[in-house]
Structure to design on (338 residues):
């Protein structure tokens, strides 16, 4: 099956007062219709920048982009601003962590959902209102025909998140980019929103990119996983492969800092020591080497001198100099020591 979205060797570099920030530095992936790709990484790993670039929402003056982004046969990097605007909302849409930032406080929920619909379909005001009510019903807002006239501040946090999803999906986009949409919500509402997205995907066959720093969320929603570190992909594969048998030390570190669903609840979580790399002056060699618990297991100081490329190991990609046959034992010892 032809990928619906194809990203090839994407590089996104910004110029800042202090120099060039290499926010994304050679990223490749595909996404098929009806599937969910989970992109996981700490803040500053390049996951949000990747998606703003797909949507064409980056600052064109300050950004140098290389590579290829093709959505359903259309090259997005050569598309005009007008074309992108037509695609946004219609063919691709985005939901964010902060619904208040994407909803205007000055207009009713119904008006905002309806206007998005009118802009792309030329529907009448009456049709747009009906459509807004239908969408609110679909995302599980009670009494949608009444709540359609509410302002965002009259909605609870979870309801605003649903309203934002309704607005994003009002034109049946084929690609939905969800950037940490549930992070600010409590666990129950979070689970409801995830179920809602899964249902909507089933119904419409939407392709979803789900950005998160939480592997638990990935385990719940993704088909495929892409793990980013310092602007690069360090591991990618199916969710089952990556979560059951990670091949990269960074993924191993993320997993050991995640609460296990069936494990004892009182084990303290250990975040990976150190902080994400500067993308202004990234570390030499493997960008993870200053934080990696395995760098001393690789000979000749290779980790700090040579950037590992993404190689296929056990049917999926990982970028690490550790010999594949040594990984299972090393990773098991590491997990056992925590
Ligand atoms: Fe760690 Fe070296 Fe592998 Fe990088 S290449 S993840 S530093 S072992
Ligand atoms: Mg982000």
């Amino acid at each position: 099956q032809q990928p619906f979205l194809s990203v090839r060797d994407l590089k996104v570099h910004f110029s800042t007062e202090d120099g060039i920030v290499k926010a994304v530095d050679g990223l490749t992936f595909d996404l098929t219709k009806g599937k969910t790709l989970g992109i996981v990484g700490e803040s500053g790993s390049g996951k949000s920048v990747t998606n703003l670039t797909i949507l064409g929402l980056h600052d064109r003056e300050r950004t140098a982009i290389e590579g290829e982004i093709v959505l359903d046969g259309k090259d997005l990097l050569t598309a005009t601003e007008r074309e992108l605007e037509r695609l946004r909302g219609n063919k691709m849409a985005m939901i964010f962590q902060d619904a208040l930032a994407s909803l205007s406080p000055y207009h009713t929920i119904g008006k905002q959902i309806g206007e998005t619909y009118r802009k792309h379909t030329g529907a009448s005001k009456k049709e747009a209102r009906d459509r807004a009510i239908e969408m609110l019903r679909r995302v599980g807002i009670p009494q949608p025909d009444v709540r359609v006239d509410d302002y965002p501040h009259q909605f609870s946090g979870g309801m605003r998140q649903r309203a934002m999803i309704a607005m994003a999906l009002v034109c049946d986009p084929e690609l939905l980019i969800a950037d940490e949409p549930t992070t600010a919500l409590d666990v129950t509402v979070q689970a409801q929103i995830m179920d809602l997205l899964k249902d909507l995907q089933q119904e419409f066959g939407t392709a979803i990119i789900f950005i998160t720093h939480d592997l638990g969320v990935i385990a719940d929603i993704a088909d495929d996983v892409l793990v980013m570190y310092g602007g690069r992909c360090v591991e990618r594969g199916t969710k089952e492969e990556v979560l059951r048998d990670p091949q990269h030390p960074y993924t191993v570190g993320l997993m050991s800092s995640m609460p296990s669903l069936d494990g004892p609840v009182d084990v303290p979580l250990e975040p990976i020591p150190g902080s994400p790399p500067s993308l202004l002056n990234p570390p030499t060699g493997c960008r993870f080497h200053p934080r990696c618990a395995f760098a001393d297991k690789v000979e000749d100081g290779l980790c700090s001198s040579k950037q590992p490329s993404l190689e296929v190991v056990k049917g999926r990609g990982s970028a690490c100099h550790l010999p594949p046959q040594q990984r299972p034992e090393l990773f098991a010892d590491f997990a056992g020591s925590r």
Residues 36 and 218 are 9 Å apart (CA to CA).
